[in-house]
Model the fold of this input.
Amino acid sequence: MTEPASTESHVFKCRVYYEDTDAAGVVYYANYLKYAERARSELLRELGTDNSALLRRHGVMFMVKEFAATYHEPARLDDALQIRTRISRIGGASFSAEQRVEREGRLLVGMKVRLACVDARGRPARLPDEIRLAFAT
Amino acid sequence: MTEPASTESHVFKCRVYYEDTDAAGVVYYANYLKYAERARSELLRELGTDNSALLRRHGVMFMVKEFAATYHEPARLDDALQIRTRISRIGGASFSAEQRVEREGRLLVGMKVRLACVDARGRPARLPDEIRLAFAT
Amino acid sequence: MTEPASTESHVFKCRVYYEDTDAAGVVYYANYLKYAERARSELLRELGTDNSALLRRHGVMFMVKEFAATYHEPARLDDALQIRTRISRIGGASFSAEQRVEREGRLLVGMKVRLACVDARGRPARLPDEIRLAFAT
Amino acid sequence: MTEPASTESHVFKCRVYYEDTDAAGVVYYANYLKYAERARSELLRELGTDNSALLRRHGVMFMVKEFAATYHEPARLDDALQIRTRISRIGGASFSAEQRVEREGRLLVGMKVRLACVDARGRPARLPDEIRLAFAT
Done:
């Protein structure tokens, strides 16, 4: 995962609560995907829209089609995390993002995700222009 | 919580996985509500229906309106649990259940729950007759 | 649930993400307990401590022993929620709180919770003085 | 992902409940990782051990270091799923598995996971011989 320029990546702050941890004393491996999705949702919100509005106004939503993660170090209870998100590719009906879970600048988990734009029945749909424009700038 | 006759209560078996536990080494308190909901879903299935069919055929679903739990002892990773469910009241548009999380016959968590029957918009709806009949027997 | 004076209650802000919702289109009933626990954790943090520090410095943690909720209206995707927490009782080895999930001042879920202070083995422990003092003021 | 011979793969059955779904009406993308972990836990159990015993007897546990998933089709409420697990590589201090989430023989999600064997402090540890032997046969 290449290091994105800091000016290009969106930062979402996230605290680790008991719900996120497991009996091994660390954040459960599936829960980093929740952090990633929260970060993508907040990125949308900062671009002036959100998942509910996309469905209401454009009849579309985003579905994860591919996901990959490398777990370097675990996060623990009460950790203050930063989730960095960089849109790495914008296609006709999908986009990709690189996301990093960091604690004090240190990479804990690196993730790559590809999302498809689909209609209410799950069929591929064109990325709305407002999203395409917002991602490009 | 009165002890229901064993012939009257439905038993659902449930294993504790990492996802259920937290950094305190025990099952996270919210996750017992998942076990309880799984048990109610399986009770429906044994009565010959399920949540999807209720919505498709009758346009209704069940929403929890009141919930109370007493946590006696924690469950831990790899525990084999039994969730006992007894329908304690059947009303016109709601029903109540008493549910017990047990490990080898020992009560870990006792729960009481009241569920309303609602239509797709969340408005109160009459309990379908097939459910009423099934619960009564 | 009596309305606590606004000066007495702690407010935690919380956004609803996809992870919180279910196929009924609303927040899954167990997930309000996560919001409640996050709010209690942030209350501790504002009092100058946190769960990790309590365990490290005093060898204690808080375990929920009783919980009750009344669900008035559901929260939905992208909702901005406020979780109000008021400490309603401080005992020798436990405390109680009233918690409200609100959206724009409207009560969605009312909760009452009693937590025991326990040591690492789960045995009752005296509430640390720093907590007792902080809660009282 | 190559199709493992049916004799080589472990099958775990799993039902979709409300807790697993989200407001898009499908299983939330992070929750397939829970199914995968349940399946790996049950595979261990069928080999005569479990996560708790590994920690107690050998002082080790398994931590996911790499994970990748391709989401082909979504699972929905009340679906009966099969999780197929095949150990694809056994190393000195780690192993890899290929896991498939299927519904009536149809592939919904394909996953690859690499797990490290670590001690209680998270340092690499040798795979216990009982595990190595069991995986190999």
